[in-house]
Design brief:
about 325 residues; mainly alpha; two-stranded antiparallel sheet; two-stranded antiparallel ribbon; 10 helices; about 60% helix; flat
């Protein structure tokens, strides 16, 4: 609409906004955008600190190297640098120096290319600024360490860590959806281990704890008259729904088209009637497993008793043989 309504030369550029619709059709692209906006406050604060550092180096450059800065690079011909392009913006003000630092710092990551070459004149005592080359080295080194290396990597690290966090959270959600029962919350492997065919979890969520059947049951309670409820249906109704009553007459409000009683869901639903970390199939398997374990223990007890009796008889025989041998040895000594 802006592209059609505005009569400016750049109005058709608003049509490019339609390309952003691709983000709504791709979950991966949405995660990419969310990795930037999820921790937007941290990124904005770090970006403000980065701009302050650019301004700081712009001020230092204006005070120390005002005649050495240029916005455009020198002309190059045949691999040799010619005289600097004097048409470039010189560092005649703080905002121009900051603009040069911002331009070269973001694009190149190095302020050395924004400065003219300074000859080595340290030994020449007659040169007034003979130590200027040292100031240039310290200036460019601090910019590379503080801005290019630390602050820029902090921004990139925040984006990468946020993207990894969002990916881990998505994997956790996918694991909870596909690896746990939606109703009882029991892990998938518990049902698969108890199943001989290996499809215990799928059978459980299709037959035992089908979430759509629970939803259909709540819809059934909303459509059925309150007076026709059974004991179990009344139990679930009082924990999930309530009858809509007229505030003046306190009579139950009915739908004009169907004539059914109007029922609404409670704000604080009592979920005690839902299965929580439990399932009937597990109880049956546990009871059968307990019976098998008791039978095995009884069998081991019988075997242990038999072994104990056998060892006792063998020990009695050894003791009697030992006693007879001792008696014979004494008789032979007496003779």
């Amino acid at each position: 609409l802006l592209a059609l309504s505005l009569d400016a030369p750049g109005a058709p550029l608003f049509l490019l906004v339609h390309l952003m619709e691709i983000f709504s059709h791709s979950a991966i692209l949405r995660n990419v955008i969310q990795s930037i906006t999820y921790r937007g406050q941290s990124l904005v604060q770090t970006a403000i600190l980065l701009i302050v550092m650019y301004y700081f180096f712009g001020v230092v450059g204006f005070l120390v190297f005002p005649e050495k800065f240029r916005l455009e690079r020198p002309d190059v011909m045949g691999g040799r640098k010619l005289d600097p392009n004097n048409n470039g913006a010189r560092c005649t003000s703080i905002w121009k120096c900051t603009l040069v630092v911002l331009d070269m710092g973001l694009r190149k990551g190095d302020l050395g290319e924004a400065l003219e070459e300074i000859p080595w004149q340290v030994e020449n005592m007659q040169v007034p600024n003979r130590n200027l080359i040292f100031y240039r080295m310290v200036y460019t080194f601090l910019f590379y360490v503080m801005v290019t290396t630390i602050l820029m990597n902090i921004i990139f690290g925040i984006i990468i860590d946020t993207f990894a966090e969002l990916r881990e959270r998505k994997e956790l959600i996918d694991d909870m959806i596909t690896g746990r029962c939606f109703m009882c919350g029991i892990e998938r492997f518990v049902f698969d281990q108890l199943s001989q065919e290996g499809n215990g979890f799928l059978d459980h969520i299709r037959n035992d704890h089908n979430m759509w059947k629970y939803l259909y049951f709540l819809v059934y309670l909303k459509e059925r008259d309150y007076e026709d409820y059974s004991g179990g249906e009344s139990f679930v109704f009082h924990r999930s729904l309530f009858l809509v009553q007229d505030p003046d007459t306190h009579e139950v409000v009915r739908d004009r088209e169907t004539g059914n009683e109007l029922k609404m869901a409670k704000q604080n639903v009592d979920l005690l009637w839902y299965p929580q970390r439990d399932a009937m199939v597990l109880k049956d398997r546990r009871s059968s497993a307990d019976q098998e374990l008791m039978q095995k223990l009884h069998k081991y007890e019988i075997q242990t008793n038999q072994l104990t009796t056998h060892l006792s008889s063998q020990a009695d025989k050894l003791l009697s043989v030992g006693a007879e041998a001792t008696k014979r040895a004494r008789e032979e000594r007496e003779k």
